[in-house]
Automatic annotation (TrEMBL):
This is Carbohydrate ABC transporter permease. Keywords: Cell membrane, Membrane, Transmembrane, Transmembrane helix, Transport. Its main location: membrane. The chain crosses the membrane at residues 28-45, 87-111, 118-141, 147-168, 193-215, 250-271. It comes from the Bacteria. It comes from Rhodococcus sovatensis. CDD domains: TM_PBP2 (cd06261).
Length: 285
């Protein structure tokens, strides 16, 4: 009996050591992946804080620190104006996509009507169409509406996102129908049920989706470059101001690119708790 207990204890010890090694190996891999992902961002800010003569240096630590690249960038482009324009475009686009996705997913998940599946597949099918296919019709339509070279022309074709509808519908279908039925028995309207029952319980998913939509709009370069041909009204196009036939001005360019990252970082910090809840607990299905 004593020998069996010793053997069992030894087996548990070996199994515990194996779990510890697997845990250490997993954490080591995650640390390496995190360093690889974060290093370009660190190098971006490190280069922006070097002196102009040291921009090409390969030293991992910028020293002495200098803000000359930031002052140089501020003297060449209207950074505040570019930030406000980019934020406005991204905010309006993301808010509109979130609102339309919320209403459409609510209708597809909570109601039954004729041609429901066909309409949903047609809606989602637009997500599968490459942007290059719809780019030319959108451009012609904006030209006829007189919206070329305007920020409205950048926003209008992005007011709806089929991806947002797809993601929110998955959450809506798994929402407890008993709560909706109880709210209807209390005499609440569909509009009231949406905003007082469904939306408060979907805050993590809405927060995660909103930041995804905002980042997608914030980072968009190609479509603004097509619409805004005569001006660099958004931050991503403003970076072109530091590119020339005689070479690129890397220091100010890194400074502007670094400032372009800050709003997204701040948004993530503000919504971090909801995003973690959405991805880890409920998850974007």
């Amino acid at each position: 009996m004593t020998t069996e207990m010793r053997n069992t204890g030894a087996a548990d010890s070996v199994e515990g050591s194996g779990d510890l090694l697997r845990r250490i190996r997993g954490h080591a891999i995650l640390v390496v992946i995190a360093v690889v992902c974060a290093f370009p961002i660190y190098w971006l800010f490190a280069t922006s804080l070097r002196r102009p003569d040291d921009v090409g240096s390969l030293s991992p630590f910028p020293w002495p620190l200098s803000i000359e690249n930031y002052t140089d960038a501020a003297s060449k482009v209207d950074i505040v104006g570019l930030l406000l324009n980019t934020f406005g475009v991204a905010f309006v686009s993301a808010a509109s996509q979130l609102l339309i996705a919320l209403l459409a997913s609510y209708a597809f998940a909570m109601y039954t009507f004729r041609f429901q599946k066909i309409l949903y597949l047609a809606f989602i099918g637009t997500w599968l169409v490459p942007f290059q296919v719809t780019m030319l019709p959108n451009y012609v339509l904006l030209y006829q509406m007189g919206l070329i070279n305007t920020l409205a022309g950048v926003v209008v074709p992005t007011l709806c996102s089929a991806l947002g509808v797809l993601m929110l519908r998955q959450h809506m279908t798994s929402f407890p129908k008993e709560l909706v039925a109880a709210a209807r028995m209390d005499g609440r309207s569909s509009w009231s049920i949406l905003w007082t029952v469904v939306v408060p319980n979907l805050r993590p998913a809405l927060a995660a989706l909103s930041i995804l939509l905002f980042i997608n709009s914030w980072n968009e370069y190609f479509w603004p470059a097509v619409v805004l041909q005569r001006s660099n009204s958004v931050l991503q196009l403003g970076l072109r101001s530091f590119m020339g036939t005689e070479g690129n001005d890397w220091g100010p360019m890194m400074a502007v690119a670094g400032m372009a990252c800050l709003p997204v970082f701040l948004l993530y910090i503000v919504l971090q708790r909801h995003i973690v809840n959405a991805f880890v607990r409920s998850g974007l299905k």
